[in-house]
Design brief:
single chain, 804 residues, mainly beta, Maltoporin, Chain A, 22-stranded antiparallel β-barrel, five-stranded mixed sheet, 39 strands
């Protein structure tokens, strides 16, 4: 029953009691860090490590054939192995699957050994190794728009349409937005990705799945680690991780300060992150878990370019003079008096305007876990999450605070149902978010100086619901999963637009919105364990995502206006998948999916200074294939060689959508049925060939070469403009001399060249609104600004880490 026992542990509110963390490094057979030793002891230790590597290789040869015939033990036997109510978590590296992830669903895990020696300036570099995950650059150095199966590709900032968690605590706010500014990859020990419609357990906004980050356990750190990364464009990341733990407690703390600039002008930044996870076993039945994340970000921003501007001047060099800009420069037109055009306007550059982001995010969570008996656990957690923003990002600026609360309580019971081994879970939840924001004009004075307020929004979003899940072992090889989630969402707010007519009294135009939504999401899946190495699953599940309150107040022109008719998006997905591994030699996962959307929420922009407009596409379809591979091609001759691949084919099309455009005084309706949904990358690939010396004088020395490739993708509903694809190669060399004598055994070194061949590429592109001229002819979008950010050119980064 190990699969049943661990199936829900990664879920947001069912991250079960974890009293024993198996350190990731030890799970991979790495040697523990020791105190300084003399030369004889070091030599003896090195010899033993070499002998252990040889023994491990021989055991793999002997065990692999036998393991291929093995069958997973009956659930009753596995359940009998645990009687203390304490869950032991193990993350397996060879299979690419985290044991905390739910069964009978496409999922993957990324372990620390895969990214420990990467500079990892943003989480995108790490998540690229997971099948089905894609990303685009957002607004800021670590603001990455993560997508699972293309769920969020049409969003160019933040994370929507998937749920994000850290150590079981919600990082997605009740309005569906998560941001990765607070995510420093150096802090984590493992990352889990759940793919496909998942609202039955994760609730609102889980149309694409979920991602959970796991801070390194204190028992794994066992002391203090300090690190320093330095690289091109002034990049500097100074960080420290500290931890300790035993069977009664575990404490893990992380702090980083990151600064740098980008190849693109006016993109300097400074960000500080603190992350703390503490757990205490109060009694054999009771455990408290405390979580704190605090991030402060201060970054300059450039403007998004048109495709022609990108081709001409991708990094916006020489654009500081807004009145006499060079080729390929995006500029802002700001009202001289800050209210209207009566006093004229001035053209300025992003640097002259002082655009950027100055944000603070604080998350505090507490969870109580209680074992009612050997088979039943109850846990309750409360999370406070406040997002405080100051974002003068274009000719308009945004200020706002978004405090939220998330409360959930769950029961989990292992037993029998109809005489069959069963794992049942049930939970209730409630979350609440206040929205208080203002939009204002910028003036040409610089330093993002405020002019008149143009929009004020105040409101509240609330979600409350129930979730149920049953895992039933029908036979030793067969497990069925049934899930059901139901949720009530209420949005209530007022948006007030202000206007300042010349020589007239200012006006205000309020729009009220009060919407209620009821959503239900069932799930049915079955998993067949053909052997201990090979599992197959089939799944049908649904999900939903309500619009955000602010979506209701932006019209099709990207201006303040009524858009209160929006409905929730819903999808029904069918999934067939298989996972197979052969000892430590081969791990392969393959999934095919077909998802039917109703009222899909799609966003696009009309240009610089405009807000993103959201609409419902009545019917659309997403279908594709995702694959993951980890191969040790020569386990005997080159045991340290490894090839990994993560691939996604994603085809998303409109089935029923008519776009309404204005041509002069006429309204034109254009059918988009069969068109590709813009913003979606059809194919993405991450391929890495690595070698790490497992023994001998060069033990700990390793290197890899990596390819990240992406297809070109459409930028508009008419499919007339496409962002070009790219392939970027990265090279890394690292050295972790654990077997070396003295202080050297406490050090790790690494050096990376990213974008080795210095390719110029599009790292992010917003969808664009199609336009018609007065004669109803399509207007070319090559010169429409507000879309494209260029990716980073060749970058050199070196890192040093020392364990005290």
């Amino acid at each position: 029953m190990s699969a049943l026992r661990t199936a829900l542990a990664a879920s947001s509110a069912m991250c079960l009691t974890v009293a024993v963390h198996v350190p990731l490094a030890h799970a991979q057979g790495a040697a523990p860090v020791t105190a300084d030793v003399d030369a004889d002891t070091a030599a003896r230790r090195a010899e033993l490590l070499r002998r252990r590597a040889d023994i491990d290789a021989e055991l793999q040869k002997l065990e692999a054939p036998a393991a291929a015939e093995a069958v997973a033990p009956p659930a009753a036997e596995a359940a009998a192995a645990r009687r203390d109510g304490v869950e032991t978590v193990v993350v397996t590296g060879h299979s690419g699957r985290d044991d905390r992830l739910p069964i009978a669903q496409s999922a993957s895990g990324i372990t620390r050994e895969q990214f420990a020696y990467m500079p990892a300036a943003s989480i995108a570099e790490v998540l690229a190794m997971s099948p089905g995950v894609t990303f685009v650059q957002g607004n800021g150095p670590r603001d990455v728009s993560i997508s699972v199966r293309g769920s969020n590709n049409r969003q160019t900032y933040g994370v929507r349409n998937i749920k994000v968690f850290e150590d079981g605590f919600d990082v997605t706010q009740p309005d569906g937005l998560a941001r990765t500014d607070l995510t420093d990859p150096h802090a984590y020990g493992a990352i889990g990705v759940v793919r496909g419609p998942s609202s039955a357990w994760y609730g609102n906004y889980a149309t694409g799945g979920a991602v959970e980050f796991h801070l390194r356990p204190g028992a794994d750190i066992r002391g203090v680690e300090a690190g320093l990364d330095a690289g091109s464009y002034g990049y500097l990341n100074a960080y420290v991780a500290a931890g300790a733990g035993n069977e009664r407690y575990d404490v893990s703390a992380f702090l980083s300060n990151v600064r740098g600039g980008g190849a693109t002008d006016h993109t300097d930044y400074l960000t500080t992150t603190a992350n703390l996870l503490t757990s205490v076993q109060l009694t054999p039945q009771d455990r408290l878990v405390f979580k704190l994340i605090d991030n402060e970000l201060d970054t300059d921003l450039s403007l998004r370019l048109s495709l022609n501007q990108f081709r001409s001047n991708p990094y916006q060099h020489g654009c500081d003079d807004g009145q006499h800009p060079g080729a390929g420069c995006a500029t802002l037109s700001l009202k001289n008096n800050g209210f209207n055009g009566d006093a004229g306007t001035t053209t300025v550059s992003p640097a002259q305007a002082g655009i950027g982001r100055h944000d603070r995010r604080t998350i505090v969570g507490l969870r109580w876990e209680h074992a009612l008996d050997d088979a039943t656990q109850w846990q309750t957690q409360l999370v406070f999450d406040n997002r405080d923003i100051k974002q003068p990002t274009s000719s308009s600026g945004f200020d706002g605070t978004y405090p939220s609360w998330n409360l959930r309580s769950d029961l989990r019971h292992e037993g029998t149902l109809l005489g069959l081994p069963s794992l049942a879970a049930a939970g209730v939840f409630y979350n609440d978010e206040e929205i208080n924001s203002s939009q204002y004009n910028l003036t040409p004075e610089g330093h993002a100086s405020h002019g008149g307020v143009t929009v004020q929004t105040a409101g509240r979003t609330q979600n409350a619901g129930l979730r149920l899940r049953e895992e039933l072992q029908l036979a030793p090889r067969w497990t069925a999963v049934l899930g059901l989630g139901g949720e009530y969402t209420q949005m209530d707010g007022r948006n007030t637009a202000f206007a300042y007519p010349p020589a007239s009294t200012p006006t205000r135009a309020p729009i009220d919105a009060a919407r209620e939504f009821y959503n239900v999401a069932p799930e049915l899946a079955v998993q067949f364990a053909a052997s201990a190495q090979w599992t197959l699953h089939a799944r049908v599940a649904s999900a939903y995502g309500t619009p955000q309150l602010t979506n209701l107040f932006v019209n099709a022109d990207g201006d303040p206006g009524r858009n209160t008719q929006l409905d929730p998006q819903r999808n029904l997905g069918f999934d067939l998948g298989s996972d197979w591994h052969y000892g430590e030699v081969l791990s392969l996962s393959l999934s095919g999916f077909y998802e039917f959307f109703r009222d899909e929420l799609v966003s696009q922009v009309a240009g610089v200074g405009k807000q993103s407009y959201t609409f419902n596409a009545p019917k659309s379809e997403h279908r594709g294939v995702e694959a993951g591979l980890a191969l040790r091609p020569l386990p005997t001759a080159l045991p340290g060689a490894k090839l990994t691949l993560a691939y996604l084919y994603d085809d998303q099309i409109y089935r029923d959508y008519t776009e309404v455009l204005v041509a002069g005084s006429d309204v034109v309706r254009l059918a988009r049925d069969g068109n590709t949904i813009p913003g979606v990358q059809p194919q993405t690939l991450n391929a890495r060939l690595a070698y790490d010396q497992p023994a001998g004088a060069l033990q700990g020395l390793g290197a890899y070469i990596e390819l990240n490739a992406r297809d070109g993708f459409e930028l508009d509903n008419a499919n007339t403009l496409q962002a070009p694809g790219y392939g970027v190669v990265n090279l890394n060399v690292h050295y972790a001399p654990d077997a070396a004598p003295g202080w050297l055994s406490r050090c790790d070194f690494y050096f990376t060249v990213q974008n080795l061949f210095d390719r110029t590429y599009v790292s992010s592109a917003s969808n664009l609104t199609d336009k018609l001229d007065a004669a109803s002819k399509p207007v070319a979008l090559d010169n429409t600004t507000g879309s494209i950010y260029a990716g980073t050119p060749r970058v050199y980064t070196g890192g040093l880490r020392y364990r005290f």
